[in-house]
Amino acid sequence: MIQPRPFRSVVRPALARLLALGQLDAPAITALEGAIDFAKRVPARRELLVEGQEIGDARLLVSGWAVRARLLPDGRPQLLGFILPGDLIGFCRQARPLATSTVLTVTDVTTCALPPAALSPSLAQVYAISHALEEAYLLAHITRLGRLNAQERIGDLLLELNDRLGASGLAEGGRFELPLTQEALADALGLTSVHVNRMIQQARREGDLQWRAGQIVLNDPAMLAVKVGRMPVQVCATT
Amino acid sequence: MIQPRPFRSVVRPALARLLALGQLDAPAITALEGAIDFAKRVPARRELLVEGQEIGDARLLVSGWAVRARLLPDGRPQLLGFILPGDLIGFCRQARPLATSTVLTVTDVTTCALPPAALSPSLAQVYAISHALEEAYLLAHITRLGRLNAQERIGDLLLELNDRLGASGLAEGGRFELPLTQEALADALGLTSVHVNRMIQQARREGDLQWRAGQIVLNDPAMLAVKVGRMPVQVCATT
DNA sequence: CGGAAATTTGAGACGAATCAATAGCTGTGG
DNA sequence: CCACAGCTATTGATTCGTCTCAAATTTCCG
To answer: What percent of chain A clears pLDDT 70, i.e. is strictly above it?
Structure first.
């Protein structure tokens, strides 16, 4: 029998992530599955949005990783946040919005059109939660940069990624794919790649993590969370 | 003749700021003026929202300053962003939202209920722009903490405050009230108050600014912007 | 006027950056 | 299948920016 939806297994994480944010009714799920079937591939290191340019229609990241980044006058980038499967891209409410940051693909990626929120109240609610979470991650990033030292920043970011990927089934037991170079990590964390390297090695020596061939294993996420003073994220009350 | 609206002069900045964000139709302005007439006073150093607790109805900051902050386990606060007259407080779209940060009054403050967006499309648009701007300021803050040195961080933040206060008429020609201690500045910028002090003095010596009795004067905002590599903020296309 | 808060100053320590070089890995073409 | 190019990761030596601790001074406010 021919498989009608070839990407189904790849697609599950994005859908799983949205479902983890809140109940979705049948029309919403149908619309999302339909949209995902028409997902388009984009190679690594391409611009999905450019800071200051007009944003077209919002999209959903179906698979792969992207980042929000800002390029400084001196050429060095500051990575503002990571966009993972199930995250929205360019979702805003004002008319004729301009991108406040550049969005770059990190890996090969698939994205699809975002079904309109008007389609279902449950869909609108999930989008709102997703948007609120995105802001919460920005706040967490400010705190990381403002008050944590290098070792804590790395640990805290990896824990956030572990949590977020966990919601879509892309992380389990502290283990997940991390398609980032140490330099990219440095650009996110306000450090140099040399120093990130030293701190990663220290974390390895201290038994906090393993990292080989793009695979991260956090040996004890709960313990690491205590070590770096991490706080959980929640944006709405669950009944 | 008796003045019907005693706060009118204090109130203008908040209204001016909203008008600066976009056209507002008559019903929207009427509703805002009406809401502002019932503004309530809150003394300095009170919590308007508490991280993790449910947010009630959104409010508008009419006068005074507030901050979004996160308290770390070790007790030190990280200030995430400043809330100025005309800014929204607790504006979100998801059901039963929880505050992602604590909001503290810095000075004595007045706030009023936020007229519902449903009242007028122009009001909804202005709220959306305000919300998008708030996110843009978070991104700017991440960049400050991630890639600027102490001197640049201070200059860049003061320039942002100058721009934002300028939109409501509370800053003019680089001059504005700054009701913050050097310690608060340090808590926002990921520095110590000792180091903020030294850098402020250096900025004074270099002729970049004056700061006496809570009044800041940026001697040459445009030049300072070049010096710290500052980028402007814009969130939607103006026709 | 008195006391608390905020600012200022100094000396020394430490974390992270910088500069520079080496080693490992990946893919590509001959 | 090997050689080479170009990233990515690793290591070392040194410098620099910011923190820490401590104390003095000024400003603010009741």
So the answer is: 95
Q: What is the pLDDT of residues A174-223, one digit of tens each?
A: 999 999 999 999 999 999 999 999 999 999 999 999 999 899 999 999 99
Average pLDDT over residues B91-114: 95
Give dist(CA A218, CA A209) in Å, integer: 5
- Dump pLDDT digits (tens) for A10-57: 558 999 999 999 999 999 999 999 999 999 999 999 999 999 999 999
Instruction: Please give the C-alpha separations between residue A54 and each of A96, A102, A112, B81, B192, in angstroms, as whole numbers.
Output: 7, 11, 18, 26, 39
End-to-end CA distance of chain B: 43
H/E stretch holding B133 reads helix B121-147
Asked whether A122 and B54 are in contact (CB, 8 A), the reply is: no
Nearest CA in chain A to B186: A146
Q: Each residue of B17-45: b (16+ CB within 10 Å) or e?
A: bbbebbebeeebbebbeebbeebeebeee
pLDDT value for B4: 45
Integer Cα distance of A47 and A56 in angstroms: 13
What is the reported pTM?
0.94
The 3-state DSSP class for residue A213 equals: coil
pLDDT in the model for residue A181: 96
Cα B82 from Cα A89, distance rounded (Å): 26
Q: Is there contact between B181 and strand C, defined as CB under 7 Å from any strand atom? A: yes
Question: Measured between CB atoms, does A78 come within 8 Å of chain B?
Answer: yes
- Adjacent-strand bridge partners of A212: A215
pLDDT category of residue B239 using cuts at 50, 70 and 90: low
Rounded CA separation A86/A104 (Å) = 16
Tell me the average pLDDT of chain A.
93
**8 A C-beta contact, residue A235 and residue A132:** yes
Torsion of CA B208, B146, A49, B237, to 10 degrees: -30
Assess whether pLDDT exceeds 50 at residue B2. no
Find where tokens 């010096």 sit.
B227
DSSP assignment letter at A153? H
Strands, sheet with A209-212, edge to edge from the N-terminal-most edge strand: A171-172, A175-177, A215-218, A209-212
Q: Residue holding tokens 């650009």?
A: A187
Question: Which chain A residue has its CA at the smallest distance from B141's CA?
Answer: A142
Measured between beta carbons, which residues in chain B are less than 8 angstroms from residue A92? 128, 132
Residue B77 in tokens: 């606060």
Select from A67, A139, A152 the residue whose CB has the most chain B CBs within 10 Å, as the one to mutate to test that interface.
A139
